[in-house]
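Tokens as discussed.
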């Protein structure tokens, strides 16, 4: 499974403005609703419920919020780089500025875990994160995210 299989060019948000974790999740839920046809409130509430189980801020300025939905037939991803880092209650207590939202079908157990692992591996690479933080356009971000995953397979 490659990042390019999960994310389209329209799912790259190169400078998302948000003032809090809740605000980021609301913005991501709205974008995800436009892409998937799901209700934005349903997405937002599922993301909040997942965050109550433990933060999805994995460290090094990265968060991977995720949720499962019966109405989906495939895994969707949205990448957002925040214009200013925010407190996401991350494991390392550092503010977050790189976020990948993953939405999966309710029955996508193994595939959901593979997608989480793939995204996590990509964003654990500090050099990759530096490149992402240094890229300005959505096209450049898309190329970075998909090129690296295709060559690293």
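Sequence:
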């Amino acid at each position: 499974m490659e990042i390019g299989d999960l994310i389209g060019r329209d799912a790259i948000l190169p400078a998302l403005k948000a003032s809090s974790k809740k605000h980021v999740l609301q913005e991501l839920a709205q974008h995800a609703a436009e892409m998937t046809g799901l209700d934005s409130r349903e997405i937002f509430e599922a993301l909040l419920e997942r965050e109550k189980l433990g933060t999805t801020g994995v460290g090094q300025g990265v968060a991977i919020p995720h949720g499962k939905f019966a109405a989906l037939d495939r895994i969707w991803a949205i990448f957002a780089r925040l214009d200013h880092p925010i407190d996401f209650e991350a494991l390392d207590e550092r503010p977050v500025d790189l976020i990948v939202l993953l939405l999966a079908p309710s029955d996508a157990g193994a595939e959901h875990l593979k997608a989480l692992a793939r995204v996590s591996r990509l964003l654990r690479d500090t050099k990759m994160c530096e490149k992402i933080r240094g890229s300005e356009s959505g096209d450049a971000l898309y190329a970075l995210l998909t090129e690296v995953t295709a060559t690293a397979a």
